[in-house]
Amino acid sequence: MTATFSDYVAEQDAKNTISLKVTEWCLMLCDALKDNYTKYAIRGHQRSVENFNFTYDGSPSIQSQYHQRKIEELKAGNCPIDYVIESGRKYHKIMFVDGGGHHSVHCFVDKQTGEVYKSASYKAPAKGVRFDLRLIKDREYLFANADWSGGYLYAR
């Protein structure tokens, strides 16, 4: 059976749709990672507020005031880190960027298939697919359990 031009167009349209969805899911992953970091940082500052609550005369300590201010900044959306996407020839790199402009690769996502890989180095993913974004079950688990430090990417 020979393929017609309309079959070819339909196939290319399906591939483009998947590629667009993969990019959208990568953006959602970036948002989930940043949200996880924000919650993590707030918990840390709250512990510090409890530990450095008051001075000996009963007034709020300087450390407590600092941590309280940081909690308010985080809740207002002022997060010191960010996750961005750098697209290469085959992969989207999910990049962790800190406040000083330093960056590292968080994970790799195949642009055509939506498969998520742990990073082995700055330029290459580790062997073995960790998640497949096309699968609803994997995607839901990924967004619910993605942590900013990448622990969820270790082989399960």
Write a concise synopsis of the structure shown.
By secondary structure, the chain is an alpha+beta fold. The protein has helices at about 5-50, 60-75, 135-145; strands spanning about 80-85, 90-95, 105-110, 115-120, 130.
What does this entry look like structurally?
With about 160 residues, this protein is α+β, with helices and mostly antiparallel strands. A 5-stranded antiparallel sheet has the order 1-2-3-4-5, with helices on one face. The mean pLDDT is about 90. The chain contains 3 helices and 5 strands, in the order H-H-E-E-E-E-E-H. It has helices spanning about 5-50, 60-75, 135-145; strands at about 80-85, 90-95, 105-110, 115-120, 130. The protein has one domain (about 5-155).
In terms of topology, how is this protein built?
Elements: H1 5-51, H2 62-75, E1 82-87, E2 91-97, E3 103-110, E4 115-118, E5 131-132, H3 136-145
Helix pairs in contact: 1-2, 1-3
Order of strands, main sheet, comes to 1-2-3-4-5
Estimated share of beta-strand residues: 15-25%
Q: In angstroms, what is the radius of gyration?
A: 21 Å
* Count, helices: 3
What is the makeup of the main sheet? 5 strands, antiparallel
Number of DSSP-assigned strands: 5
**Integer tally of domains:** 1
Low-confidence stretches: none
- Kindly report the average pLDDT value: 88
Q: What would you call the structural class?
A: alpha+beta
How many angstroms separate the termini? 43 Å
